[in-house]
Amino acid sequence: MTDRLFDILPARYKNPKTEFLGHPKGLWVLFWTEGWLSFAQYGMLSILVVYLKDILQHTDRARHILGLPSLLSINDSLYAPSGLDATAGSLSGLIMAVIFAAPFVGSFMADHGLGRTRSAVIGISLLTVSFTLMMAESCFVLALWLFLAGVALSGSLKAQVGALYTLEDRRRSDAYQLYSQSIQIMAIISPLLCAFLGTIAWRWAFMATACAMMMGLAGYLMGCRYLPEETASFAVGKDIRPVGCTVVEKKRIVFLLWLVGLFALGVLPNQEIMDGYLLWGSDHYRLTVMGITCPVSTLVSLDSVISMITGFLVLWFWRWYDHRRGRPGHDMTKIIIGSAIATAGPLFLIAGEYVCPAPHQISLWWGVAFHTVNDIGCGMTFPIGMALFSRYAPARYSTTLISCFTLHIFLGNLMVGKLAGMLHQIPDALFWSLHSGAAFLSTLGLMASSRIGSRLFLAGSSHG
């Protein structure tokens, strides 16, 4: 793999004058864009399972939603849910699963002619239209399809972050940490605002997400000049067939795809937060704080606050640790440590229910403990894993493979949908033990694979 293939930046991006706060200005354009996209997406997802439950228990409203019977039929064939909570939970899990699989399709198109910037502009535009349509309840399913198409095409944003840096640039991992913080910041604000607006009328919540998408689209269009230029490999109409992969690159691709499966098991506790966890929390948590009863979707904002704090702590810790050692630590080692930590998260929920088995009696401090441990683990696995995929994916397939990384969330959400359908069907202790056990299996798999990864990543490169 030659440096020339990765060195896709025009000269102006290598000029320090084009940097801001130690990073290329393009990173902050993507930070802004991804932030507003996250506002819209997390706002919608934080109320999705509650919104679906509200629709399903009012058949007079459900019958007026175009395409809903077909969507429920697909959900029934996959999960066969029993009961209102199980149906809403499994359908929410299915939608979230497809959300994280869609970018793979869009990134493949970006890598094979459409181009990253053009793909992102089309995708963000579709997202804006989809959230606008969600304000009309009868068009909700149609809006979902447009939303999935928009998510697919906007998936190239993550690849554009990596393309701002050369392969050897140590700031690449830090950039993905900062990029992830844009998601966390908006994931704090959006669920709180959308939950509040949803108590007035659902359409007001969706109006807020539509306005956020307009902000993201405007910022991206104005900041395009700071983004990496497309190379010949990504230009429309260019023949990309002569660009091949070496044997080592092919082995790396296979290994990265293997990691996707392991990450899928490890992500189950985190992905359940947007699904069955909210249903479980509404039954078990004491949600009254200082005399104010908070909507259950506030738990998503709580998670985002903790995630942002732990994210910065993780970033600081690894910078301090690398400086103390005098060289960067191995990405795989950091990921394994994060996965092991995340394993312990669901155990706090089991302990909380054991101490306070009565409904609505579990203190939110048990939730804080769960979110803290879970978010420390995710803060090590998700951004560092994305940076690893960005660093070692062959240039021709970089956008596609970086989106492949998010396929682990797709696979995880498929399993989460099935698990959410088991809520109240099995003991809660067993329910959360399954999540913890899956994360433990992921950790064991990563440990067993780390030696193979070290050999592959060191081959033809000085980076581990």
TrEMBL record:
It is found in: Cell membrane. It is a multi-pass membrane protein. Its main location: membrane. The chain crosses the membrane at residues 29-52, 88-108, 120-136, 142-166, 178-198, 253-269, 289-315, 335-352, 364-389, 401-423. InterPro entries: MFS (IPR011701), MFS_trans_sf (IPR036259), MFS_Transporters (IPR050171). Keywords: Cell membrane, Membrane, Transmembrane, Transmembrane helix, Transport. PANTHER family: PROTON-DEPENDENT OLIGOPEPTIDE FAMILY TRANSPORT PROTEIN (PTHR23517:SF15), RESISTANCE PROTEIN MDTM, PUTATIVE-RELATED-RELATED (PTHR23517). This is MFS transporter.
